[in-house]
Structures are given as C-alpha cells and as structure tokens.
C-alpha cells in the first residue's frame, strides 16, 4: 500500500514528481490539463523525457491522472457529451506517453434522463472512449457521492456500466472514494462496517475491478450525498474507519491518493503521516 496525494503541475507537468516527493508521497495524482477547461499543453518528447527524469530522481514509479470537472457522459447536450468522450480518450493517450498507471473519471449526472436511459448512455460512452485504444494507461470509473442525481453512487450502477456490452471487453476498473462511498450510504466507520461494505463491493462489482483508492474523510453526514472532503480523522468517518480500511485484505494492498483540503502547506504532509502511522498500526 503506497500513500500519495493530488499535486500541482504549475510550471510544467514535469514539476509534479518533485511536488509529490516534497510532501512525503509514495505515489501521486495530477490533472494533466486545467480541470476547468481551456488550452492544453501537448505532451512532447521533451516533456516525456523531463518527466521520466524527475520520476527517477525522486524514486517514484506510479502516478495517476484525474479528468477535468466538466465531464458528463450522460449529457443530452452533444457538445458536452462528445467533448467528454474526446477529453477522456485524450487523457488516456497523454497518460500512456507518460507511463501513467490509470486515468480516473467522474461520470456526470443523469440530468433529464431516467436512470436506465442514463446508464445505457454512459455505457455507450465508455465503449466509444475505449474503441481502438492501444495505450497502456487504464481507465477507472470513480464512485460518486450521489448529489444532484450524479451517476455512480451505487455499486449496482458502476457494475451495470462495467457489464455493458461495449465495455466488458475492455480493461476498465474502479476507483473507490471513501468520502463518496460514505456519503452514498456505504458505512466505513469501523472494522465491522468496512468489512460489510467491501463484501458488498466484491459481490456486486468484484475485487478484480478495484484498482486504487481516493482516501478522504467526509464533512457531510453518513448517507447525506454531500461531496465535501475533510482531513483524515477530522470528519465523520474518523480514524477508526481509516485504520480498518488500511488493514483490509484488499484495500490495504492498493495505492491510496489523498484529495483532502490544501489550506496550508503542512496539510498534505500531516495527512500522509497520519495514514502511514495507521498503516503500521
């Protein structure tokens, strides 16, 4: 189990490994472009060379990319729908150039579509993203908090997308977000609840699909569908829950990426240190 965090690429994507090492991260996550849209800097051979050198320099070998915030694979607006498909595919291609392990994405909101129709549209979308893809970076679907009819707040919804005829032939995995799962009504506050929740995950989705973890405490209440991340041990999940998660037979072997608040430069090192201590004990 490696513990990392989301880091900035300000000044160039090749700055990310150094930013990760600075806070004690053992792996890391980035946005390879602005999460809000706008111009995208190409991944040139020179960028690839510099990035690889920085990874080696800081003794890091694994990182992840998060897609931008505007993704919506069930949008009825063609510019958003097809734009989302194109951007996710581009991120997979960009990630492959940089030897990124996986790209994770939110799925969007059902909006005016019914759940069944919306899930079908997402399945078709993911199929379009993966069609003809030959890269090495894996696509991960992230579990959501479920606010505003967001897609993927239930394990059954993720399973249905993964089992879609256009998706199941491809190697698409899952990112388990502790805050999102908790907000969606999957309890992870102690060993008993962690074991029960992850037993459900295995039954409905399957361990082989689980690739990495977003590790965030929750500002919102259990089952409240509030997507608000909190520092480890400060929110409604609490330290007992994260200790149980760290020692779980499956989650305890995966990469953990923090997306906790960054109000102070000491926040990331502090949260990473807490998780490392929980990992030991």
UniProtKB/TrEMBL annotation:
This is Probable endonuclease 4. GO terms for molecular function: deoxyribonuclease IV (phage-T4-induced) activity; DNA binding; DNA-(apurinic or apyrimidinic site) endonuclease activity; phosphoric diester hydrolase activity; zinc ion binding. Binds 3 Zn(2+) ions. Zn(2+) 3 binds at residues 180, 227, 229. Endonuclease IV plays a role in DNA repair. It cleaves phosphodiester bonds at apurinic or apyrimidinic (AP) sites, generating a 3'-hydroxyl group and a 5'-terminal sugar phosphate. Zn(2+) 2 binds at residues 142, 177, 214, 259. It catalyses: Endonucleolytic cleavage to 5'-phosphooligonucleotide end-products. Belongs to the AP endonuclease 2 family. PANTHER family: APURINIC-APYRIMIDINIC ENDONUCLEASE, ENDONUCLEASE IV ENDODEOXYRIBONUCLEASE IV.
């Amino acid at each position: 189990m490696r513990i990392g965090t989301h880091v900035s690429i300000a000044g160039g994507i090749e700055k990310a490994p150094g930013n990760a090492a600075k806070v004690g991260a053992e792996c890391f996550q980035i946005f390879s472009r602005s999460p809000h849209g706008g111009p995208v800097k190409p991944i040139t051979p020179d960028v690839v060379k510099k990035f690889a050198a920085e990874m080696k320099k800081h003794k890091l070998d694994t990182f992840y990319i998060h897609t931008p915030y505007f993704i919506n694979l069930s949008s009825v607006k063609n510019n958003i729908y097809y734009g989302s498909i194109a951007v996710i595919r581009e991120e997979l291609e960009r990630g492959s150039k940089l030897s990124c392990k996986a790209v994770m994405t939110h799925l969007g909101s059902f909006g005016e579509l019914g759940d069944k129709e919306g899930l079908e549209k997402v399945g078709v979308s993911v199929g379009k993203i993966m069609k003809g893809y030959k890269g090495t970076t894996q696509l991960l679907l992230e579990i959501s908090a479920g606010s505003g009819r967001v897609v993927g707040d239930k394990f059954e919804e993720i399973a249905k997308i993964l089992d879609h005829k256009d998706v199941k032939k491809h190697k698409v995995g899952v990112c388990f977000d502790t805050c999102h799962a908790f907000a969606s009504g999957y309890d992870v506050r102690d060993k008993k609840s962690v074991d029960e929740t992850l037993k459900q995950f295995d039954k409905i989705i399957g361990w082989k699909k689980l690739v990495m973890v977003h590790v965030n405490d929750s500002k919102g209440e259990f089952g409240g569908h509030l997507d608000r991340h909190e520092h480890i041990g400060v929110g409604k999940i609490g330290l007992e829950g994260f200790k149980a998660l760290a020692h779980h037979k499956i989650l305890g072997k995966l990469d953990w990426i923090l997306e906790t608040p960054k109000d102070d430069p000491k926040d990331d090192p502090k949260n990473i240190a807490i998780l490392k201590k929980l990992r030991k004990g």
